[in-house]
Specification:
heterodimer; A: 857 residues; alpha/beta; Barwin-like endoglucanases; six-stranded mixed beta sheet; three-stranded parallel beta sheet; 27 helices; 25% helix; disordered C terminus; B: 344 residues; alpha+beta; Alpha-Beta Plaits; two-stranded antiparallel ribbon; 10 strands; globular; disordered N terminus
Chain lengths: 857, 344
């Protein structure tokens, strides 16, 4: 669901087909019949943006029929924990949870706490407004959310009968997600829905497991994080987390996107999902550590201080001492939303002067491309490093705004510096894939001409800046000058192995490489560039480079690459055994307690303290890992349990709830609340939004990739062998919509939103079907988003059609669903295009019954 | 001529177990080929790209064909692997398409096919006349989608994909008719063109029962899949098979592939896919079986394959025999005339 795996991840899809060959049933739930559907056993056409309604229906099916894996649920999840009487559900508040603050459009989550938690300490210095501004959801990439007072006994009802226990709250919350409602909201006929429920639950439990695969079809929505939460609830109820063949797989956008959040290129994160310090609350190291983790919490996240201090020691070396808080003050601070879209709008507004684009093409790949390009055109300088001259480097002379007169090359003030980059085969380093696996790449060929690796660029940029500032006495230059910028760089090319060694970490007292994060200390005696990667170079061996054949090693191939943390292939695999430490079934055995050896053993590296017996009960005053019981498998969570209900950590509610997309053609049938109440709107004239339930924009637009092209096209539209396979931008429509709008196969059509109109050749295809939603027929339109104005094959930028509306937890844009109109023929050109779209906006304002912000709240 | 043929048969037609030996390779490696299992093809076209990368085949022009997601159209001088995409109103065994119960109208498949067929008809190929000049295939048709079909609402759908390639026939007409010896049978039993010998006559193009071989517009010489002859000589598998992520394209000794294919068909039948059938694997068919054969999920015609291909040179021997007899008759007649005249 939310993934077109065969097309976007064809190499990984071989394993789905391998599973199918061994008897697995493959179900593909997607708005279109894609190349993935063609190989699936079952395809279900669904309305884009209705995933929670569908998954909520499956959850209800499981709960109503008591199909949950009860022993697992009681022992390993928070199903039995009791909530306070203050907590109010969407059932009580017509689509809102308790704690909603309309002024900031955010939640105070204090009422979501467990009954036994101290309300004053539940969340420490949590600020709902700030949490939403800074995308705190990103910080939960490895450790669970902060939760105070969960080390001892938590008030619970193991019979799951108490009306305030999580299980019963869950039951009430999803009570209205009936098959009839699923049919009305998602457009999925009841018989098809029943088929999915039956297949999913039949293949789950003690003996069997099912896996869920998703991609940006789930994340790029205003309910993105909650889409995945809904799947997590289902997989926990069915006992499929921490067990072989279960789990939830995120298909990442391209090579090492996982790596780029582990060691982040995000404004709000430090390596290992440590939050970037806040200017408001993190005045020193102590205040930072106290707000990142709780004192009375379980698990390994409580040692966050050791992870941070080791990182600071890696950054600033000998300059980082206990006396100066290990240079904590050198870290940048954030004071709000500095995400990519906020920054683009700040560029338009003249608040940003310089910008680096490294391997990114926002002029094509980001939504509301016009804002992106107008922002790029309003800088002092712009540095672009890429394989080819991309649209984001040439917008000033050939972008779409030249034609409309909004940018004139002579007057564009931005000075663009284009640096040719070395490709992945021209440099060494690691990729981290969706399985958290680091795989080392050798350099296959030398880069040509002036092409350089990213490491080279960053290393020498830092070196030159430090040389320029060497004589500076200005305090603000100290962070740069004190950096331990002393990587091995034979012949000027920095050694990626040396970088990986430092990422893995050292014991500074002996100089030895550490074996893993359990050795990291908060006293400055260890250094580590990313605590979750700690151990990738243990013993001086580049574990990421290991390539032992699967035929010559164990079942889980532990000697192929290295998986964080500690080379564990299945996270939380303690849950693959029952509370007594025995495998739930022989068929699904993974790790188990060996009483004779008094340790955890099995096929995988146990994700548990090796010698902690299954019946272990910690003393009352224990904290951190020591506070974990022998049956607390979720060792990064503050309470050691899998969360059906999230008492903290989410900005938009403790349970997934169906809200309509920002631009929906229908009313929310489930609640009075139409769209996500905490979504982030950026209301400004250059980001106009379509009215809700618009008659002027009656169709649903969704986008995705084609196998033949890669993201914004920089790596495919310039290559003849790929470009010829998909040489033109197309728009896929059903035969029914083609008749309705007079569209002909291979003829021209243009798609219109409040932002712009984009023209494309029409593909009339049976792969799209109309849906019956809320009693009427709704059409979906699909476009690939790879085209721009540079390359062997060119076309309009599809992302220009989308407005900027963000999901509140991680600030991802809603780019998988919008409303639109489709008309035959080509779009107007030049200034006439602007007028044409403006006329559409005027018409929508006049004709559509419910216009603007009010309708969406 | 060799003597191991059945009575009434000859080396240009009929069963022939060892074409490499027949071509004079006394000691040779086992005959190799492709088994292309279309039931696991995901239409990624990695085979098309890998083929061009390895064999330095030029691009075929940036033309939107729009036959579903296929823009290559057909095999040709510059397309040695071609992935066909077939959209069908029909169900596929063992699959639930999700069309059932939806508010559908008539299918658009006929509209798509008619529109694209018009474009394809205009595509010049290197056979009749030189060049495969690219054309804009995007002319809108006059009929609206679904207008030509009888059904009021579609109820099912399936999508077939198939990577097509030169069949490397046991009896290869292209080779038989080549006047220059540019086409030859390798020690692996495959059929390869030597461009430096080819004179561009085009006989091979009209000889191929599958429309595979074609002349390259750039130089007029015949081109087609070599089954990566250079890679085979170095003990490597062909580029397309190497690149295929799902093992839809399987390379190996032909005997093994035939066994594997038979087992796969049986497995699919057991799993409720009665449509599964093999194409080109039968050594007794009109081309003596092909080294590149396929598991299909519908009739061959649906994929653009001839249902019963026959080597064009099947009747060559008979034709020569008849021609010889005719000549003899003429000679006899002529002599008779002179004899008769002499009697005067």
């Amino acid at each position: 669901m939310g993934s077109n795996m065969a097309e976007a991840h064809p190499v990984g899809f071989q394993w789905v087909l391998e599973a199918k060959a061994r008897g697995a049933t493959v179900i593909h739930i997607d708005p279109r019949f894609t190349r993935t559907s063609a190989l699936a056993d079952v395809h279900v056409a669904i309305r884009a943006g209705s995933d929670i309604a569908f998954l909520g229906g499956v959850i209800k099916h499981v709960l109503d029929n008591e199909l949950d894996f009860r022993e697992y649920v009681v022992a390993y999840t928070n199903a039995s924990f009791l909530l306070t009487d203050e907590y109010q559900d969407t059932e009580d508040l017509d689509g809102l949870f308790s704690g909603y603050e309309p002024e900031s459009a955010s939640y105070d989550p204090r009422s979501w706490r467990y009954r036994s938690a101290d309300p004053a300490q539940h969340l420490g210095g949590f600020d709902a407004g700030e949490a939403k501004e800074t995308g705190i959801g990103h910080q939960l990439g490895s450790g669970g959310p902060r939760l105070e007072g969960v080390t001892g006994d938590i008030a619970a009802d193991p019979t799951l009968q108490d009306p305030r226990c999580v299980y019963q709250v869950l039951k009430r919350h999803f009570a209205r997600y009936t098959p009839e409602m699923v049919e009305q909201v998602c457009g999925v006929p009841r018989a098809q829905f029943a088929r999915v429920c039956e297949a999913w639950t039949r293949n789950s439990g003690r003996e069997r497991t099912s896996a869920v695969v998703y991609a940006v079809g789930w994340t790029q929505h205003t309910t993105g994080a909650q889409n995945i939460r809904a799947a997590s609830i289902l997989q926990l109820l069915l006992g499929q987390i921490g067990r072989p063949g279960g789990g939830i797989m995120a298909m990442r956008g391209h090579a090492s996107i996982q790596g780029s959040t582990d060691i982040p290129t995000l404004y709000n994160l430090l390596p290992g999902y440590l939050p970037m310090p806040s200017a408001r609350t993190h005045t020193d190291l102590t205040s930072y550590v106290e707000s990142v983790r709780a004192d009375k919490q379980k698990g390994f996240w409580r040692n966050a201080d050791a992870y941070l201090v080791s990182l600071l020691k890696e950054y600033w070396g000998d300059a980082a001492t206990a006396d100066n808080d290990y240079c904590f003050d050198y870290l940048p601070r954030i004071d709000g939303d500095h995400g990519t879209y906020r920054t683009a709008m700040d560029m338009v507004d003249g608040k940003v002067f310089g910008y680096f684009l490294l391997g990114q093409n926002p002029a094509v790949g980001s939504v509301n491309g016009r804002v992106q390009r107008l922002g790029l055109a309003n800088l002092d300088w712009l540095v672009v490093r890429d394989l080819v001259m991309i649209e984001s480097a040439s917008f000033w002379k050939d972008g779409p705004e030249i034609e409309t007169g909004e940018i004139t090359p002579e007057n564009c003030r931005t000075e663009v510096f284009f640096f040719p980059a070395a490709s992945h085969v021209e440099k060494e380093g690691t990729f981290t894939n969706t399985q958290r696996m680091l795989q080392w790449r050798e350099r296959a060929v030398e880069p040509k001409g002036d092409q350089r690796s990213d490491l080279w660029f960053m290393y020498h940029l830092g070196r030159r800046l430090r040389e320029r500032l060497a004589a500076s006495t200005d305090e603000r230059d100290r962070p740069l000058l004190d950096l331990a910028w002393d990587y091995d760089a034979p012949g000027g090319e920095p050694s990626a192995e040396d970088v990986l060694r430092r990422v893995s970490g050292h014991d500074l007292t002996t100089g030895r490489l550490v074996d893993g994060y359990l050795e990291l200390k908060a006293d400055g005696s260890t250094s580590c560039g990313c605590w979750i990667y700690s151990g990738v170079f243990a013993g001086g061996l580049n574990h990421a480079a290991r390539r032992t054949s699967r035929l010559d090693q164990d079942l889980y191939a532990h000697e192929w690459g290295w998986v964080w943390p500690y080379n564990r292939r299945i996270l939380y695999n303690r849950a693959s055994a029952d509370p007594e430490g025995r495998p739930w079934s022989e068929r699904k055995a993974c790790v188990w307690w060996d009483a004779s050896r008094a340790e955890w053993v099995g096929e995988d590296v146990p994700d548990f303290e090796r010698s902690k017996p299954p019946d272990y009960v910690p003393p009352g005053d224990a904290v951190g890992p020591a506070a974990l019981r022998g049956d607390d498998p979720f060792v990064m969570q503050a309470d050691g349990k899998g969360w059906l209900f999230a008492p903290s950590g989410l900005v938009d509610g403790p349970l997934p709830t169906h809200y309509e997309p920002r631009e929906s053609p229908v009313r929310n049938l489930l609640y009075g609340q139409q769209a996500s109440p905490t979504r982030k709107d950026y209301a400004r004239p250059d980001n106009p939004l379509n009215p809700v339930q618009s008659r002027v924009f009656p169709y649903i637009l969704t986008t995705a990739r084609l196998t033949e092209h890669h993201t914004a096209g920089g790596m495919s539209r310039h290559l003849p062998y790929l470009a010829e396979l998909q040489p033109a931008l197309t728009v896929e429509v059903s035969p029914e919509l083609a008749r309705e709008r007079g569209l002909e196969h291979l003829g021209w059509a243009h798609v219109i939103t409040s932002r712009t109109a984009v023209e494309a050749r029409v593909l009339v295809t049976d792969r799209l079907v109309p849906l019956r939603v809320a009693g009427r027929v709704v059409h979906q339109v699909w476009m690939p988003y790879h085209w721009g104005n540079v390359g062997l094959v060119v076309g309009d930028v599809v992302n220009d059609l989308f407005g900027i509306t963000a999901e509140p937890n991680v600030l991802i844009q809603e780019s998988k669903v919008a409303s639109c109109d489709v008309r035959p023929g080509r779009r107007p050109r030049g200034p006439e295009l602007l007028e044409y779209v403006a006329a559409y906006r005027r018409r929508a304002a006049a004709e559509d019954p419910e216009h603007g912000e009010a309708a969406a709240t | 001529m060799s003597t191991d043929h059945e009575p009434g048969r000859h080396r240009l037609y009929g069963r022939l177990d060892d074409p490499a030996a027949d071509a004079g390779h006394v000691e040779h490696p086992p005959r190799v080929g492709f088994f292309t299992d279309t039931s696991v093809c995901i239409g990624c076209k990695a085979c098309e790209v890998a083929c061009k990368e390895w064999n330095l085949v030029p691009d075929d022009g940036m033309n939107l064909l729009g036959m579903s997601l296929d823009n290559s159209g057909m095999l040709g001088a510059n397309t040695w692997r071609h992935v066909a995409f077939i959209e069908r109103e029909a169900p596929l065994g063992g699959q639930v398409s999700g069309v059932e119960g939806m508010p559908t109208g008539a299918s658009g498949v006929a509209h798509m096919e008619a529109t694209v067929a018009a474009g394809l008809r205009d595509t010049e190929r290197g056979g009749g006349e030189l060049g495969t000049t690219t054309v804009d295939l995007g002319m809108p048709s006059l009929s609206l989608p679904g207008a030509a079909t009888g059904a009021e609402s579609r109820t099912d759908f399936s999508w077939l994909m198939m990577s097509d390639v030169c069949k490397h026939c046991t009896h290869a007409a292209c080779l038989d008719v080549c006047p220059t010896g540019a086409l030859f049978r390798t020690e692996f039993g495959t059929v390869v063109v030597q461009q430096d010998i080819c004179n561009g006559c085009g006989y091979c193009v009209s000889g191929c029962p599958f429309g595979v071989i074609d002349r390259r517009p750039q130089d007029g010489r015949a081109n087609k899949c070599t089954l990566c002859y250079d890679r085979l000589q170095d003990g490597l598998e062909p580029a397309c098979a190497k690149a295929c992520p799902t093992e839809s394209i399987q390379f190996g000794p032909l005997d093994e592939l035939r066994e594997r294919a038979a087992a796969r068909v049986e497995q699919l039948h057991e799993r409720g896919v009665p449509e599964a059938r093999l194409y080109g694997e039968d050594p007794d068919d009109g081309i003596g079986g092909s080294a590149a054969f396929f598991l299909l999920l519908d009739e061959p015609e649906v994929y653009g394959l001839p249902p019963d291909p026959i080597v064009a040179s099947r009747d060559l021997v008979d034709m020569w025999r008849h021609a010889g007899a005719a000549c003899a008759a003429f000679v006899t007649a002529a002599v008779a005339v002179f004899v008769a005249a002499g009697r005067r």
